[in-house]
Please model this.
Amino acid sequence: MKYLVLILALAACKQTVDHEVAEKLVKKILEREQMKPTDVACPKGQPVSIGTTFDCTANATGHVEVLVHVTEVDHTTEDIVAEGAGGDYKLVGAVDDSIVSRTRIAHAAPGVDASKCAEAQKLAKAGDILTCEVTLDGQKKKAVSKRTDKGVVITVE
Model:
């Protein structure tokens, strides 16, 4: 009878990801992308399991809904990592590839000043195009972001 009680107690204590830990990770990731996130929300009750992925949402300036994919990993990466339950699990996250941010534009064209571009914009479907004015080597240019079937391509013209 003791064993049955122990098994039931362990089953009842199944570990889940602390949604507040995941939300803090999302905020850090979006701040790294030069966004000011608000209304960050991650689902509660996600099981702790390597490879488990769940989506969190946030709003950026201009009320753009930003989707961040959060995955549990068993190793430390170069990405921003959040740890939960005293280090029992690690989470990494990535902004959905449909979101164009100033940081993504700057990575696409090193040396570009994208400060006049919107903080975040969403390219919802293939064929969607966004443009914004940037400065490169003191000259005004245009950053063009185009959504393809394989993701977003950013060029500076």
